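Re: the request from the purification team.
They wanted to know what the chain is likely to look like in 3D before they choose a buffer screen. I agreed to run a prediction and write the result into the notebook, where they can find it.
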Amino acid sequence: MRLLGGRTTAIDASLPPVVFGLGWFAFGESIAAGGAAAVGVGALIAAWRLRKGDRPVAVLVSLLAVMFGAIIALHTGHAADFFLIRLVTNAASGLAWMVSIVVRWPLLGAVVGTVLGQGRRWRRDPALLRAYGRASWVWVCQYLVRLVVFIPLWTANAVVALSVAQVVLTWPLVAVCVAVSWWVLRRALPEDHPGLRHPQDARATSA
């Protein structure tokens, strides 16, 4: 749950795009109406999050992403461009995960290691490092799935379909990704390995 940020985070990310699609459709395919509705909902979510004590920077970034999406769509005159930032961030995220695997700093290990309070100890365990690398490819696939779905819909200016895809490919897809990556991680570890919470220092073992 900490890794995902909870269901409420997924809902917060999905609501503005859905409201944009609904506003755009309800007001005769008006980008201005859809953008205003999305920004309004985004502002309400931001206010609610700040009231609950969430980090101001994270709240502001989420709101700015909605605002920039609306501005881009208004500037280009294509409603689907509201989702352009999401396309770019998914492509960048997928690339970052791939690079992290290649340089032997798989992001899944960095995130889980931080959550478990391990610092960099997981990197000194060859078996765990290899397992995190393999499981991180599942997360790369998550971003690729989004791009495979989003790009054709974006090029076709399918605003309503993009709104629906945003919902389906947020929490449900991430939940599947977590389950599959956990399975890959467990399968990749040797049977005698003590598990994620107990990384084995190769230098100490060899000594």
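For the purification team: The two ends are 37 Å apart (CA to CA).
Please add any questions underneath this entry.
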